[in-house]
């Protein structure tokens, strides 16, 4: 009976995660890997919320039985929780949740985030850029792991698979505790202070006026820069009409501009309406350089966000 209750809980959590993913995402057009990773992340998080009370209840029940048996009581008065299952079942479940979360947190999600913002034109190049961008992130974790390893070796610990797994867990938890300590001061001081100031209507209104002015100026600047980059990309596309390899990459760059912005730019009759603060396209070797194309693509990505 207890195992059936657990299966019902896990099924309910899966349905809940799928419904939320359908509400806040668009699984019909987004990549399947993104959908799967998001679903697994939400599913594991909800498992902790729904299954942890059962685990706590079973723990207190077993503690109650142990205390009564040690006191040599003839009758057991402990209330068995609903959904009682064997400890091995929950142990295996928590192991799956923990190590899957570790894989998502340290490898899959960071690489996916950087992969989505990489401006390269092939999957291999994007993956390489994502790994390089996460190098600092992984290096910090590696330093903590090496320190834990050296400390363990200094205490005479022998290395085997079980000990390495414990060291990996220790390094991961140490990194999390380090971030918690670093951010704790901000959370205890700055967040309440910010909430206190936001409660003042006059302060909030003045801050919004100031922010609106900066946002408006940044938006206008981004629009002008976008027009320059678009004209530059169109000129490059025209100059390289016979270079099919490079032309394909530039065509991909041009396709990222919004249609309404393209109509606005194409409506301009004279090139004098464009400002020429960007790179002048007078060297075909520069245009064919993949580094130049990646820089242009990355510039467009951030400009679209600003607009």
Characterise this structure.
The protein is elongated. The model is unreliable at 269-281 (pLDDT under 50). By secondary structure, the chain is mainly alpha-helical. α5 crosses α6 and α8 packs parallel to α11. 8% of the residues are buried. The chain has helices at residues 2-24, 32-70, 87-117, 123-133, 135-154, 161-198, 201-239, 244-254, 259-266, 284-288, 290-306. 79% of the residues lie in helices and 0% in strands. The chain is built from eleven helices and no strands. This is G_PROTEIN_RECEP_F3_4 domain-containing protein. It comes from Rhabditophanes sp. KR3021.
Write a brief caption for the model.
The chain has 307 residues and is mainly alpha-helical. The protein has helices at residues 2-24, 32-70, 87-117, 123-133, 135-154, 161-198, 201-239, 244-254, 259-266, 284-288, 290-306.
Helix content: over 70%
Number of domains: 3
Low-confidence stretches: 269-281
> The biggest beta sheet, please?
none
Order of helices and strands: HHHHHHHHHHH
SS elements, strand count: 0
Rounded to the nearest angstrom, the radius of gyration is 28 Å
Give the number of helices. Answer: 11
* Oligomerization state: single chain
Tell me what portion of residues adopts beta-strand conformation: under 5%
Structural class: mainly alpha
Overall pLDDT confidence = 78
Described by the principal axes of the CA atoms, the overall outline is elongated
What gap, in angstroms, lies between the N and C termini? 57 Å
Protein name: G_PROTEIN_RECEP_F3_4 domain-containing protein
Organism: Rhabditophanes sp. KR3021
């Amino acid at each position: 009976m207890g195992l059936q209750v657990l299966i019902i809980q896990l099924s309910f959590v899966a349905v809940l995660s799928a419904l939320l993913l359908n509400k806040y995402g668009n699984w019909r057009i987004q990549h399947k890997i993104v959908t799967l990773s998001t679903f697994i992340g939400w599913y594991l998080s909800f498992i902790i919320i729904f299954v942890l009370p059962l685990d706590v209840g079973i723990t207190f029940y077993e503690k109650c039985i142990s205390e009564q048996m040690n006191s040599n009581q003839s009758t057991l008065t402990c209330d068995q929780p609903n959904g009682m299952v064997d400890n091995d079942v929950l142990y295996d479940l928590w192991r799956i949740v923990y190590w899957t979360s570790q894989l998502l947190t340290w490898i899959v999600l960071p690489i996916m985030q950087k992969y989505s913002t990489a401006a390269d034109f092939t999957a291999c190049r994007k993956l390489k850029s994502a790994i390089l961008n996460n190098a600092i992130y992984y290096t910090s974790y590696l330093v903590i792991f090496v320190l834990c390893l050296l400390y363990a070796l200094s205490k005479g610990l022998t290395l085997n698979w079980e000990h390495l797994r414990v060291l990996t867990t220790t390094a991961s938890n140490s990194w999390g505790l380090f971030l918690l300590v670093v951010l704790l001061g901000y959370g205890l001081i700055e967040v309440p202070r910010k909430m206190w100031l936001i409660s003042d209507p006059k302060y909030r209104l003045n801050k919004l006026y100031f922010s609106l002015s900066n946002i408006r100026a940044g938006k206008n600047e981004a629009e002008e820069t976008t027009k320059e980059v678009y004209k530059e990309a169109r000129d490059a596309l025209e100059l390289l009409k016979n270079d099919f390899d490079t032309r394909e990459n530039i065509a991909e760059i041009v396709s990222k501009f919004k249609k309404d912005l393209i109509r606005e730019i194409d409506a301009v009759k004279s090139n004098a309406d464009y400002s020429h603060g960007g790179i002048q396209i007078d060297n075909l070797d520069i245009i064919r350089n993949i580094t130049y194309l990646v820089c242009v693509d990355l510039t467009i990505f951030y400009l679209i966000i600003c607009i």
